[in-house]
Each structure stands twice: as C-alpha cells, then as structure tokens.
Amino acid sequence: MLAKTVKVEHTMRRRRTTIAVAGAAALTVSLTACGGGSSSGDGGASGGAAKFDAAVTGVVNSSDAKGGTLRYANEGEWDSTDPGDTYYGYSWNFARYYTRTLVTYKSAPGAEGATLVPDLATSLGKSSDGGKTWTYTLKDGLKFEDGSPITSGDIRYAVERQLDKTTFPHGPTYFNDFLADVPEGYSVYKDKKDLDSIETPDDKTIVFHLNQAFSGFDYFAALPSTVPVPKDKDTGSKYKSSVVSSGPYKFADYQSGKSFKLVRNDQWDAATDEVRPALPDNIDVTLNVNKDDIDQRLLSGDLDVSVTQLGIGAAAKAQVLADPEQKKNADSAPLNRTWFTSINSEVAPFDNIDCRKAVIYAADRTGYQTAFGGSIGGGDVATSLLPPTIPGQQKIDLYPVSSPTGDEAKAKEALTACGKPDGFETSYSYRVERPAEKAAAESMQQSLAKVGIKLTLKPYPQSDYFSLYAGKPSFAKKEGLGLMANGWGADWADGYGFLSQLVDSRVIRETGGASNLSVRDPEVDKLIDLAVNEQDTAKREQEWADIDKKVMEGAWVYPGVWAKVLLYRPKTLTNVFVSSSYDGYDYSALGVAKS
Amino acid sequence: MSAPLDVPGGATEAQPEAVLSGAGVAIQGRSLTRIAWLRLRRDRWALAGGVIVVLLILIAIFAPLVVGLLGHPPNEFHPDQIDPDLATPIHPLGGITGDFLLGVEPLNGRDLFSRVVYGARISLLIAFLATLLSVLIGTVLGVVAGYYGRWVDTLISRTMDLFLAFPLLVFALALAGVVPDKAFGLNGDALRIALLIFIIGFFNWPYIGRIVRGQTLSLREREFVDAARSLGARTPYILFRELLPNLAAPILVYATLLIPTNILFEAALSFLGVGVRPPTPTWGGMLSEATTYYRVDPTFMMVPGVAIFVTVLAFNILGDGLRDALDPRAR
Q1: Would you say A560 and A440 are in contact if contact means Cβ atoms under 8 Å apart?
Q2: Do A370 and B273 touch (CB under 8 A)?
C-alpha cells in the first residue's frame, strides 16, 4: 500500500490546498457554532428562516418550486469539466448537475450530508473476498442525454479512460493505485483493451477487483471517475466541452474561458434519482470574474453563487458583518480541513516528548486562530487533528490551558521536565506565498518567546514545500526545522480520507513528498492497518478517533484550527444548506426564487 | 535668507573699477565647492530634501531611542487593538490613537510607527551600502576604461552591456531563494542584508561606470592632463590625483540619485518576499502585507507607502539640486 499511497496524497492535497490558499489569502473569517449543533435533523428545516449560520445545520428557504435561472460565477476556470479529469471540491459538487456516479453523498444538511447513498447503483457496494472485490448493480431506466441506455460497460470504460494521467492529468489517482494489475502507463487510447480487474458480466453489473482489501471503496465509487462515458462519444481531452450528460442537466452553450450554460436534460428520469431535486430550469456560469466583483454582485443579489466557495473577501466580510440584515445571509461553514503545526522529533530537543508538550502549552491559540481569519470564517481552535465534520470525530483535549493565549506555567513545567528550563532555539518553516501561515508563524514566535523558546522563521516556496523543504526529512533535520506549518483537507469526510496520509509514519520517505511531516509512532501505524481493514462502520470510526487521540498523546503536532469559510447566500437562493461532503453549499439542492 | 543673490562677505557685487582705484572690497577667489554650496543654499527645494534626508538618517540611527519615546517594541503584538472577527484595528483610520501614532497592523496589532522607523534602518542601510559598492566598482572601472581606451575600454564597456542586459530581478529572486543560513561568517538577517547589498550594488555599477567613462574620455584630452603627463607623472597619479577630483561632481550627483533607486529596489525585493525574514520590519515587506488589507484598512498601506515616497522624493530633489549646483553649464 505504501509505495503507492504517496501519489494518492499528492493529488489529494492538491485539490483542497488550492482552495484553501486562496481562501486564506482572501482572508475570510465566526462565531463558534460549536460544530455539533446539528443534533436535531428537524434542523430548522422546512422553510427555515435566514439567520447567521442557519445553512450550516439546516435548510434555509426550503422550497420545491421549480423554474428560474441559477447564476454562478467563477474567479478562474475549472481545471476541467470532464468528470474524469477534475480535482476541485466545488467541481465535484457542481458535476452532480450533469453527471451521476455509482454512489453519491446524501443531499442533506449537517453530518447527514456525509452519508453515502446509491445513485446509478441500486445499493452501496457489496464486498466479497475480504474487501478486495466490490460489486454494484445498476438501476433500470437510466439514460444518457441522447436517449441511449447507460450500461455497466460505460462505467467500466469511464474508469479505464481516466487512468491515463497523460490525457487527464487533473483527476485523483485512487483507481490507478487500488485496481489490481493496472499495466504501467495503461491508456485506453493506446492499449485498446479492457482491464481484467473490472468485470461487467452483464449490462447491469460491474465488479471491481482491488490489489488489497479496502473497506472504504464506496468513497471511490462516489468519485466523478465513475461517471459513465459512452465510448463512441469520447473525444479524449476535448470531451470536457461536450460531456454527454447522465444527470438532470446538459451543456447547452460552452464558450471556453468565458461561460457555459446548462439546460434541462429531458432523458433524465427523476424516478431513478433520490438525490437531485433539479429545481432551476437553467444554470448560467460565467468564468474569469474578478473576486471583488463576485463579492459585490453576491451582496447586491446580481449573482446567486460564487462557485469556488472560497468565501467572501476581507472587504465584503467587513461589510456583511457590520450589517445585521446581511449577516443573517452568511454562513461560517466548517470544512474538512485543519491548519496545524508539525513538531519534528528529529530535531533536538523535540526528540523529548516534554519539549513537544511545552510548545503545545505555550502556543497562543487565539493568535493562531486570528492568523487564519478568526472565529468567523477562519476556524475554531482545534484540540486534535480530526475536524468535527468527520463522522465519528471525538472531542479530545489532552492539553487544557489556563488561558486561550497560552499557558506559561504548564509550558515551563514541561520545559523543566524536558531538561531545558530556560528554553531553547529552533526554527519554524512556512509557505512564503501564504499570508495566513506567516501570521501564524509570527504568532507562534511571540508566544513561545514568553517561555524562552526562540523561533527563527524560515519561509519556503509552496510548490516545493513538501518535496524539497519541510517534507524532506534530511533537509528539515539539517536546517533544524523543529516546527513546520502544515495544513490538510480530506477528499471525503471519513477517518481514512483525513488521517491515513497524515499520521502514518510509513508514508514519510527520505526523498520527500509526504504530507506527514512529524508523526513517527509505530503504534499509530498499527492502529491504521486495523482501521483500514475494519468492515464495521461504527468500529472503524472509533478506531480512527483512537488514532487521533494517540497522535495527540505523542504530542507530534500542535493542532491549530479546524478551518471554516464565510459563505454568502443571496435572498434569491432557495433550499440552501452546507454539505459536509463538498465544503460548501450543496449545489444539486439549490433552487432560485422568482422575483 | 533674504534675497536670492545675498552672498555672505558683505559685498553683493564685485566692483572692478573701485578695486582699481584703491577703494571697495577685494575680489575673493571662490573654490568650486564653495560656488556649489552657495548655489545649493539658494535652492529651497534641494535644501528641504537635504533636511529630510538628514532627519531620516538620524531617525534610522537613533531608532531604538525614537521608538522608546514614541512607540512600542516593533515586534510586540497588541491583540487588544484588533477586532477579533474582522482582524482589522478597532480604532478608525487604521487604529491611530495617542498611543499608536501611525496606527496598528491588522491581525496582530503591531505598532506601525515603530515598524516604519525600524524599517528605515534596513532600507537606508541597504541603499547606502549598495550605492557605495556601485560607486566604487563603477568609478574604478569607468576611469580605467575611459583613460586606457582601446581593448581595455572595449572589454569593460561590453561587460557593462552584459550587466545592463542582466535580468537582475529574476537573478535576485533566485539567489535570495537559495541563500543558506550561514555563509561567510554571517548568519540570519546580517547575511541576508549583506546579500541584498551585494545583489543591488554589484549589478548597478554600470550606470555610474558609463558616466565616469564618458567624463574620463573628455577629461583625458584636456591640457592639465597633458601637462601632468609631460611632467612625467605616472598613470596612477594621473588617474587618481588629476582625473578623479574632476569626476567628483558627477559621481556625487549620480550617487545621490542612485540611492532612491536602490531604496525602491530593496522595497521591491522585500515586497516579493526575498528580503530579510519576518518579523524584522522593512518598508517593502510592510507594503506587501498591506496588499491583503488595502480595502478594509488602507492606512496600513499608506504608512510604508508614504515613507518610501517621501524618502525617494527627498533624495531625488537633493540629487537634482546637487546636479544644478555642481554642473557649471546648468546656469
């Protein structure tokens, strides 16, 4: 598993990272919504009134009225609208308009939104062979936009074609890594033959054979990689402008770099689809719009959604928070992301656990939070790595402090236990392009100085941060990088998606590239192997929570903040709620009130 | 200063006839420096520039004292000055209060006055030393090229072309990116400052080199050089005792004009993040941080912006004034 996982995490990191960078730069920021307040699914549902943070836990402007045009804008462009070649959370969210996957996420607010439900398939995957073989059966009456039936062969072809990362460089590599016997450099366009590891015994059945047991395969089946693609309509890298729709909408007018429209797909049968209400008649998307312009148009009601869900910028934020009328249309939405600091045990004196604890005690938690944007739209102070949006997360606080700005007494105690009562000197690395990480580094420098830990700040370019600098163990050791800014977002909301690449010491390689910068605990590795093979969901969630706790017991990281983003929903928008699977509003549910 | 032509010494006008007849004031010989000084004194703009420059230098030298009197330590956080939700200063105009004269930085509440004052140290230090380096290299090579001519001139002139064609900013970015922690017995900020001085100084010498070469070309044909040569003076003597004093004026003028260019260049490098490391304040670095907040807290951008503007302007007017004063053809 290990040889391949690094590749996985690379792409995994890329997706959420890009989003978060811009998010941090735009300096978005909230009131602690105490994360778990979703309790009652009654969730202000049915007609929920607009209120600050209302869409985080319930449905705002609940409605089933159809019609109207939903207007989206993007400050840039999609990596690709081809479902086999895209790796942005917003893109996966938006793709549900014109594509369907074997399984997908439930369209519901709060924690429920992380639940997997069947989409093209009649049920979630059935595993056999101890989790190495997964079988799905398709529903009846599924059609492409041209009226031809969707068969298991179309899904098999779709999965095979996106394995070719030369033609489709953007997408995730989970199938490349987990399917059994994928030949080196396999491409449907060159090799002209199907894989043995995907079987289609009939038009309704598809069977995946993996190279290892994996209990979470349904999460792979929810990736846009399993969106059916008719082989005779596939145009390779050009397919993105003429995607054959399997969902409720199809492309109508695709103008590269400018805009595109989606209109209703009359071949889509609502009876086969429990997820998508498909409320609006048309969906308009404008590309390459200035970020400030998007914010202003959102506030004035000229635009319905900023598609990338990076959150509103600093100027718009000040405007929104100052005006109670506007503030009630805003949501500080939690993300599956944590901004933290890795504590490197390979740099003395951090080989001593008490010195690592001293850092956790001395850190100014409010300062760190402010650096990433404060409580509104920045994030909540984290006490462990796993964010509260991940099902099964447990609140762990192993290092309680006397003041949110740091506990000097406990830090001094830990320093004495470590044999460094007067403190020591070390370095703190961060990504030079990220103002939030720089601000956090300066905050750490200030707070740690109070107990005698002197930090030298060392910025490195983000493009090579993991491959050549902080992520390369020999470099980090040589430069004495005792503390390293780090951030991580999961591709999907579960323990595997979040922790597997982050705390497994076996992903750390001398050549660099891993996002686990500091957790080196054989006990944690053992627990991960157990969790990956665990078939029972409840037990698995408990195991991931235990891993989270184990990491904190070892004081391998200072957990920092659980990220949030400040979103704005114009009054025209109906059926609005934040999906815990897509880090933003659930697009497939949105409708628009006719004015 | 009452009248523009008021010259000290009592007499406003030489009166040759009166002198001949034994009356009046004796005509005083004036040195070039003195003439220049008299001219400069009449140029109010140049004087104002000079005063500002001197003030800036004094502030930079006595930064700890100034900040001790009027500000807070430059790296100290003041979270109580910041709105926790918006990360902007709680007081209007970027948080200007009696306690924080130029407001505070968003996010962490550092005192902008203190940071600008400490930033002046880095900016001026780098600009001065880099200019010195440019002037040294430029003068020596310029004089040599101009005096010897022929293949020496060709070699040096082509080298200048090479340097002028060099993508300096790109090179500076690359070099500052790979600089190690310790080198040449220096480390940390000292090393980075030395590196900036080297990059800026070493690649700007051709500007001054060309001017010096041009001046030398015309000077070496002049009679006093011929005279010295015919009296048996050696080349080094001619170069440094005969030619150099005559080059002092243009060198001084262009050095003064090079300083603001170098201040801007240092600010640009800091803006791009290759200057000294945070939290050490620099003007360019502050500007770069301010870009994130320009809509919600324009004061943050104004403060270092105005500091750079005033400094560059002061040096430029002083330089212009000096040129007018020293160049005999100017009036």
Answers
A1: yes
A2: no
Instruction: Give burial (CB, 10 Å; 0-12/13-18/19+) of A546.
Output: middle
Q: Which chain B positions have a beta carbon within 8 Å of A381's beta carbon?
A: none
Extract the tokens encoding A71: 């207007």
Place of tokens 């009296």: B231
- Which residues are bridge partners to A339 per DSSP? A487, A561
Residue A47 pLDDT exceeds 80: no
Q: Which residues of A491-514 are buried (b: 16+ CB within 10 A; e: fewer)?
A: bbbbbbbbbbbbbbbbbbeeebbb
Alpha helices (H) in A333-381, listed in sequence order: 353-362, 365-371
| Helix boundaries (H) for A171-278 | 174-178, 188-191, 217-221
> Which is nearest to A337 in space by CA: A496, A503, A489?
A489
Contact status, residue B292 vs residue A314, Cβ threshold 8 Å: yes
Cα–Cα distance, A165 to A307 (Å, whole number): 26
DSSP characters over B125-179: HHHHHHHHHHHHHHHHHHHHHHHH-HHHHHHHHHHHHHHHTS-HHHHHHHHHHH-
Which one of A27, A312, A450 would you mutate to disrupt binding with B, by most B Cβ within 10 Å of its Cβ?
Answer: A27
Q: Please tell me the pTM assigned to this model.
A: 0.78
Tell me the three state secondary structure of residue A155. helix
> Distance from CA of residue A48 to its chain's centroid?
27
Distance from C-alpha of A104 to C-alpha of A101, rounded to nearest angstrom: 6
**Domain A334-565: homologous superfamily in CATH:** Dipeptide-binding Protein; Domain 3 (3.10.105.10)
- For residues A212 and A196, the answer to whether their CB atoms sit within 8 Å is no
Q: Is B165 exposed, middle or buried (0-12, 13-18, 19+ CB in 10 A)?
A: exposed
What is the value of ipTM here, to two decimals? 0.72
> Any idea which residue has 């969790």 for tokens?
A531
In sign, the C-alpha dihedral spanning A486, A492, A496, A501 is negative
- Predicted pLDDT at A394: 92
Tokens of B122: 């880095």
Phi-psi sector, A357: left (phi>0), alpha (psi -120 to 50), beta: alpha
Tens digits of per-residue pLDDT, A448-481?
Answer: 999 999 999 988 888 788 888 998 999 999 989 9
Tally Cβ neighbours within 10 Å of residue B251: 18
Chain A residues with CB-CB distance to B273 below 8 A:
432, 459
Q: What is the pLDDT of residue B12?
A: 53
Domain boundaries, chain A: 334-565
Interface check for B127 against chain A (CB to CB < 8 A): the answer is: no
**Alpha-carbon gap, residue A547 to A520, rounded angstroms:** 13
Q: Which residues of A235-266 are buried (b: 16+ CB within 10 A; e: fewer)?
A: eeeebbeebbbbbbbbbeebeeeebbbbebbe
pLDDT of residue A14: 39
- Is there a contact between B107 and A439 if contact means CB atoms under 8 Å apart? yes
